[in-house]
Write a structure and sequence with these properties.
Layout (H helix, E strand, L loop, with lengths): L3 H11 L16 H9 L6 H10 L2 E3 L11 E5 L7 E4 L7 E6 L4 H15 L5 E6 L7 H13 L7 E3 L4 H6 L6 E5 L5 E6 L6 H11 L1
Helix pairs in contact: 1-3, 2-7, 3-7
């Protein structure tokens, strides 16, 4: 029997009565197939998507009424380009805020799969925020780009949360951590700790936000 808390979460997120037993529908999918599958019409129902999110460690924000304020990040979208002061809420897409650091072992282990996820979709605006960037100095940004290059990571930006304003507001107490925010700035929930950024989770996130 499922415990009470997941049943309440399920009902709140889906508006459906949860099944007594969820069937496993996992498929073995190569990274090369991921983009094609995600871009095609999903076979997942919303209740399936919620189940997958919860299985991957998603913690919903209940109730989902926390509005994220206009906090700007220093963002560099490509190496050797100018830094921009960006309000991530201007993206007009659902948002993923990914907090990590080069000194964090679980972060480094997770990041290649997270980069593959970012490259496989265009549903979310993704901001990769590292605590090593305190004041937006160019040499510090360059260190992160060098890290990406050394680990063959592509498709990620480099973001600085100046004075930890956003991290403090979200109460980020550990990394890696990824926050899911709606296009209109409502905090929907988060993943805390290393997450399996599989094609299954990517598809579930897209269905959940559709």
């Amino acid at each position: 029997m499922l415990p009470v808390a997941p049943l309440l979460i399920w009902a709140w997120l889906t508006g459906e009565t949860p099944p007594l037993k969820a069937e496993e529908k996992k498929e073995i999918i190569s990274p090369q197939q991921q983009k094609k599958i995600i871009s095609s019409k999903s076979h997942l129902s919303r209740s399936d998507a919620v189940r997958i999110l919860l299985e991957h460690g998603f913690s919903p924000q209940l109730p989902a009424n926390k509005k994220i304020p206009e906090i700007k990040l220093k963002v560099q979208t490509a190496q050797n380009t100018e830094q921009e002061s960006i309000s991530f809420l201007n993206s007009k897409k659902p948002i993923l805020l990914h907090f990590w650091a080069t000194w964090c072992g679980p972060c480094k282990k997770e990041l290649p799969d997270f980069a593959n996820f970012v490259n496989s979709q265009d549903t979310f605006s993704v901001f990769t925020i590292t605590s090593e960037l305190k004041d937006g100095r160019k040499e510090d940004f360059a260190k992160i780009w060098n890290f990406y290059e050394a680990h063959k990571l592509t498709g990620l930006n480099v973001c600085a949360d100046i004075n930890n304003k956003l991290g403090s507001m979200l109460d980020v107490s550990g990394i890696p951590a990824t926050f899911l925010i709606s296009a209109d700035g409502i905090l929907l929930g988060y993943f805390l700790g290393a997450t399996d950024w599989s094609p299954e989770l990517a598809e579930a996130l897209i269905v959940f936000m559709s």
